[in-house]
Amino acid sequence: MPSLLPASILGRTSPVRALLEAELRAAGFDVLPNEDPGTLGDPSLVVVLDLEGDAPRTALDACRTTRARLDAAALAVATDRDDDAHLRTLVDAGADELFVLPHDAPRLGPRLAAIRRRVETTRRILDDKRDIERRHEYLYEHAPIILHSIDAEGRLVSVSDGWLDALGYERAEVLGRRSVDFMTEASRELALARIPELFQRGVGQGSRYEFVRKDGSLLEVVMTALVERDAAGKSLRTFAVSTDLREVREVERALARANDELHTLLAAFPDNIFRVAEDGTVLEAHFGRRQRRRSVESLPALVGKNLTEILQPLRAPEVLDAIKKVRGTTDVVSLEYETLGTDGAPMFREVRVAALPRGEALILSRDVTELRHSEALLRENETRLRALLDNAPVVLWAVDREGIITFAEGKGLAHLGFRPGELIGTSAFNLPTVPGSSLPQVREPLAGRAYMGEVAIGRVWFEHVSWPLRDASGEVTGALGVSTDITERRRVELALRESERLAQAVFENAPVGIQIFGPDGTSVQMNEAHRNQLGLPSKTYGVGVFNALTDPLHVSTGMDQCFARAYAGEVVEIHGQDVNLDIYGNTWSSSRARLVFDTILFPIRDGAETRAVVAFCRDVTERRHAEARLLLADRLTSLGTMAAGVAHEINNPLSFVLANLEFVAEALRAAPPDADTYEAATQALDEALEGAKRMRAIVRDMGTFSRADGDAAERGPIDVHAVLDKSIRMTHHALRHRTRVTRAFGDVPQVIGNEARLGQVFVNLLANAAQAMPDRPESENEIRLVTRSIDGRVLVEVVDNGVGIPPDRLTRIFDPFFTTKPVGEGMGLGLSVCHSIVTSFGGELLVESTPGTGSIFRVILRPAELTPRSRRGLRPSGRGDRPRVLFVDDEPYVCTAVRRILGRDMDLVCACGSEEALGLVRAGERFDVVLCDLMMPGTSGVALYASLLELDPALECRVGFLTGGACTDEVRSFVGDVGDRLLFKPFEAESFRALVSALASGSMPPRRVG
């Protein structure tokens, strides 16, 4: 066979040397004579001649010098001295083989052939290792992750591109410097403190440090360090992998790859060597420099034992049989078996058996556990990678520096119409489906820059990640990349953007106001409809500032609590929300300062967390105004219905009032009356007075039910029985001669409501009940009014035994404009308005009816929470002196009547109008009390009061007022502020005296304002 391996022989010419040269050439070695072991080249076998007394230096020194310079080469000693002690000394000095000549001459050829085969194997292994080291060094320096290695002195010997990129340095700026010089002071002290523990344990994991970049900024990393040692345990260098905390996953994967490569490099080849006798007794055992110590016993302790004592029972016969097979041959028998290590874990050993002289055998035992595990893991990883490439829409590819595809695998190829392997050798710039000008994923890494981006190839969109491949000198040799098909993802993203655009268009163009509030209640967006509702000056006005949970408008109206419920996950509906923009000082410049909204608050939830609240606001201001007008129209219709009855009720007492007054007037004009005439006149006056009181009650009841401003702002505790009594009196004419009314009033508390509006409900229900009565005798018809408490609320039932309501109409009885009356006899708003009024008070209006039997209307109201309120009694003060009183009224007869009746109790001055009253005060007249009518031509009573206070501020609590009914908004507002200082016409003399007494005492409170 060709001679592949050179060899050198030390020693002068001798028969032994001649024999060795011949056998070496026969075994395939080239023989290169070299007398100086210090000038060795790269031999595969070095033979030292040990000829006593003839060698220029001792064989022992030559072995030691040569052994230190050899790597894969074998070292043999050829000697003519058969001295066991001397031979052991040579083995200890590093000799791998001993040739005792001429004794071993017959087996010299086979042994040299075995050495050649072993050396060839060892050299291949070392070449593979060097190649792996070169690849590792290349990958190490050009890896995008943060890697560095330091020597035993802590100085940087290698750093990765990722380390340089992360810190912003050039490689020449950092190599040779201490790694801790690039840390903050705190991290430097921490790292120096951990170094002893690192060298003791050999590994440090999970340590956090802060590096200082070249620009002065900080880089926080988690570092893992690994110490590489030689066979003697001396530290050679330390590898460190740092993970940028912002990219933990990527660095962890890179760290795992680096650790795998590092472990591969550091794994020693198994080379335990045993020399055994023919019967299997261990004669000599050498522990190799690169052998990991996992044996059950130390190697020296094995000497003298038989293989049957060392190996497992099933393995010992196999090894002994191999010794027999190789005896006298040059064959090598290989075996592999499984055993247990010191930790009890299974391990695999490869055993090679070759023959030695004298029937002995050489056994090389190497630990291949890691190799087998690596092979299994490699197969598993290959399976996983293949599964990934076969199933995921990716393409793993590589190109050389010219852009020629050297590798392309993955299911994504099918999306481009290619089969695996079809693109190998093709230029990436000339593919038919790829325009050459649009390949940044190839051009960028070939230019030395990593690339990440999305590029379409044909009609298929890919997300590309690619980076340059470099050789040991740093030159770009190609590019490696992963391309993922994202066509479907882009389609979804485009659809999502279109959906978002459509949603934004719907949001901006919705006919209702929409406002979105963030998780903390701050307004983040509102649509154009809501901006127009509020009259906002700009698109961004209030956004990011207005807070639904703390805004004063929301707090004052209780809307903050509604929003709190929405943020708790509840859908909240608010009907009739009053919005007074005046609270902002006209900042929003809305054309309408007071608005009414129907609002729905809808929470946007993410699991148990509310991410936003959407408010849908419908402006119902105009609708409320229209409803108020319809309500007033219906109320006036009801009053019109009662007008004839009220006229009848007033005309009856008016007839006998006029007749009695005429009788008294005639009696007084005649001669002085006798006793009988005087008694008749007195009786006539009493009857006239009673008739007048009846007319006054009727007029006041009419006033109660004719008010148009009974809104929610005037709600308060009211006596439901009093309202029912007034309603009966108001409908008396419609009820009499048609039905009888019975009462069954229980003990019920006052209710929340408004007297006028609640009276309208009962008047409507009584009038409807009367109209539902059939044409039959009055005694057979009955309307029964029942009150009682139920479940903490007040129940009022209006029960009639009329014709009832058909079932098909019962479900629509409360609908607006639905009526069962003939055309022209009603608008169909009565029961609808009643239902709205009752529900506005937080109550319910229900109906139950049976045709031919009658109907029951149930009004359920909330009870009022009464708080004790002291009322100032209007009683005469009992003062002995007569108060001076100015009485102002534009009706002369009223002034005359007051002077006639009350002139004896007080010093009364009457003025017919505001101007005459002001003239008296300006002229210096002083009064204890002023009483004035509110409705007067010219200067009203309200204006007169203001003028009097300007002339004499002391009169503020001494002015009282009279009215026959408030006809203007100004007067109505004023009446609500004066409280107990008001008398309604017609009034009784005693009430007049009590008010004057209270005013004169100065005990009346001032007018309420606001």
In short:
This is histidine kinase. Residues 241-268 form a coiled coil. This protein has 29 helices and 37 strands.
Write the layout of secondary structure elements.
Elements: E1 5-10, H1 15-26, E2 29-33, E3 45-50, H2 59-69, E4 74-79, H3 84-92, E5 97-100, H4 108-142, E6 146-151, E7 156-159, H5 161-167, H6 171-174, H7 185-201, E8 203-212, E9 218-229, E10 235-244, H8 248-266, E11 272-276, E12 282-286, H9 307-310, H10 316-326, E13 332-340, E14 346-355, E15 361-367, H11 369-391, E16 394-400, E17 405-409, H12 412-415, H13 440-446, E18 451-457, E19 460-470, E20 476-485, H14 487-509, E21 513-517, E22 523-526, H15 528-534, H16 552-557, H17 559-567, E23 572-580, E24 594-606, E25 609-619, H18 621-669, H19 675-705, E26 716-718, H20 720-730, H21 732-735, E27 740-745, E28 751-753, H22 755-771, E29 782-790, E30 793-800, H23 807-810, H24 830-840, E31 844-850, E32 854-861, E33 884-888, H25 892-902, E34 907-911, H26 914-922, E35 929-933, H27 941-951, E36 959-963, H28 969-978, E37 982-984, H29 989-1000
Parallel strand pairs: 1-2, 1-3, 3-4, 4-5, 27-29, 33-34, 33-35, 35-36, 36-37
Antiparallel strand pairs: 6-7, 6-10, 8-9, 9-10, 11-12, 11-15, 13-14, 14-15, 16-17, 16-20, 18-19, 19-20, 21-22, 21-25, 23-24, 24-25, 26-28, 29-30, 30-32, 31-32
Keywords: ATP-binding, Coiled coil, Kinase, Nucleotide-binding, Phosphoprotein, Transferase, Two-component regulatory system
Domain Histidine kinase: 645-865
EC number: 2.7.13.3
Explained architecture:
There is one protein chain. The chain has seven domains: 5-128, 3-Layer(aba) Sandwich (Rossmann fold); 143-266, Beta-Lactamase (2-Layer Sandwich); 272-373, PAS domain (Beta-Lactamase, 2-Layer Sandwich), CATH 3.30.450.20; 392-491, Beta-Lactamase (2-Layer Sandwich), CATH 3.30.450.20; 512-614, PAS domain (Beta-Lactamase); 625-642 and 669-861, 2-Layer Sandwich (Heat Shock Protein 90); 884-1000, 3-Layer(aba) Sandwich (Rossmann fold). It is built from 29 helices and 37 strands. Strands 2-1-3-4-5 form a five-stranded parallel beta sheet, with helices on both faces. A five-stranded antiparallel beta sheet has the order 7-6-10-9-8, sandwiched between helices. A five-stranded antiparallel beta sheet has the order 12-11-15-14-13. α18 runs antiparallel to α19 (675-705). It is rod-shaped, with a radius of gyration of 58 Å. The N and C termini lie far apart (122 Å).
